[in-house]
């Protein structure tokens, strides 16, 4: 009980610090942002609001300007059961990637952030190549 209260209190403190120091989102041309948002439709982030690793992941989402749907898995939430049944365990953060009728459940904040950086970060060319081959990449950060 005391450990739970301490963890919740520290989580709220980390949330406040996150809010105060949130990085600026990446800027993309409107067409590129629409392409990114189209690719994100098959992704969901299962998380808890005060979890430090979830906050770390959400900071990366904000910095990369990735509006991924988040699903809070607190006790009693239907998302919690979905996470356990689909991913095999209740562990957050977890990124669900739906593609070609199959689901990939990616755990670990570092793995999730690395995947998103490679796919959507400033040096990623696949935003254009997945949707438009031959378009110029003159994006400025």
What layout of secondary structure does this protein have?
Layout: H1 2-20, H2 30-40, E1 43-47, H3 52-63, E2 69-72, H4 78-87, E3 94-99, E4 102-107, H5 109-120, H6 126-131
Parallel strand pairs: 1-2
Antiparallel strand pairs: 1-3, 3-4
Helix pairs in contact: 3-5
User: How many domain units?
Assistant: 1
Secondary-structure-derived class: alpha+beta
- What is the CA-atom radius of gyration, in angstroms? 16 Å
Contiguous low-pLDDT stretches (5 residues minimum) are 128-141
Coarse shape: globular
- Count all strands and give the number: 4
Strand order of the largest sheet: 2-1-3-4
Beta-sheet strand percentage?
A: 5-15%
Average pLDDT metric: 85
What CATH architecture label applies? 3-Layer(aba) Sandwich
Following the backbone from N to C, one meets helices and strands in this order, namely: HHEHEHEEHH
Could you state the CATH homologous superfamily? Glutaredoxin
Q: Describe the biggest sheet?
A: 4 strands, mixed
Report how far apart the termini are.
Answer: 46 Å
Give the helix level as a range of percent: 40-55%
List the total number of helices: 6
CATH structural class: Alpha Beta
Question: What is the CATH third-level topology name?
Answer: Glutaredoxin
């Amino acid at each position: 009980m005391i450990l739970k209260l301490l963890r919740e209190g520290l989580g709220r403190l980390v949330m406040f610090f996150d809010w105060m120091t949130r990085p600026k989102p990446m800027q993309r041309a409107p067409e590129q942002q629409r392409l990114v948002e189209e690719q994100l439709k098959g992704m969901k982030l299962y998380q808890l609001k005060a979890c430090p690793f979830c906050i770390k992941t959400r900071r990366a989402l904000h910095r990369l300007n990735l509006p991924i749907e988040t699903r809070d898995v607190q006790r009693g939430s239907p998302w919690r059961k979905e996470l356990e049944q689909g991913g095999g365990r209740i562990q957050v953060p977890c990124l669900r990637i739906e593609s070609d009728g199959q689901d990939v459940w990616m755990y670990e904040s570092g793995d999730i952030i690395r995947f998103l950086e490679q796919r959507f970060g400033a040096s990623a060319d696949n935003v254009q190549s997945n949707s438009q081959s031959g378009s110029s990449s003159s994006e400025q950060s």
